[in-house]
Specification:
The chain is about 30% helix and about 25% strand. α1 crosses α5. It contains five helices and eleven strands; from the N terminus they run βαββαβαββαβββββα.
Length: about 250
Amino acid sequence: MSDTSPQLPEHPGLTIGISGPARRSTAHRLISLALRIHGARTHYIRPGARVDVALLDGLVLSGGTHVHPELYGQQPTVTARYDRRRDQTDQRLLSRAEQLKIPVLGICRGAQFINVFHGGSLCQNVTPLRVHTRHRPLLLPMQTVRLVRNTRLGRLMHSTIIGANRIHSQAIKRLGRNLRVVALDNDQFVQAIENTGDHWLMGVQWHPEYLLYHGGHRRIFSHFVHAARARKLVRLEEAEANDPTTTP
């Protein structure tokens, strides 16, 4: 799969929602850039915003504060920043996106939130559990990640072993319903998940927006935008078929 998409029928522009904290960071601007490079417009969604998800063609759940442990039946065991308002917003956005089968990409916290939303849990602090991987954060792709063959992520990365960065201190513990693990690091912590159905849903534990100089990580965004475009065309066709004013 290349970064260039094949010629497609004319259609209205794509709009991708990016859910994030109240203040945008460099990471969120880079996510927006990565999506715009591949032809999508972006709309930033702050905690508490009331966005009609039906007007979006894709949804990115970005990184940020920790998911509150109460959402997976635990109490906080580490000192961390939480944003319950953002948890509520992401829950509403993800629920509606799944209903509409709008493509969803979760990054770091976003991947963890997808897992929790599906009934899974998180390890609140993986740092003391690391044996074969570095403890400190890495913005460069110095973490080895092993991908599962014949998965969406495995196919678009063109390799079963890649380099990735790491900024997180939490990780997926119990896998959520209707999800599968598609990547692990050298300590066997989950690095990526996908859904088991036909809905395009992917969560990556690393931050591909900081690795746009690498073709494989760019393809995560191009593949996501391509899926959003394909889903938009299906929705337009469905709307036209259900329009009583449309003549055969």
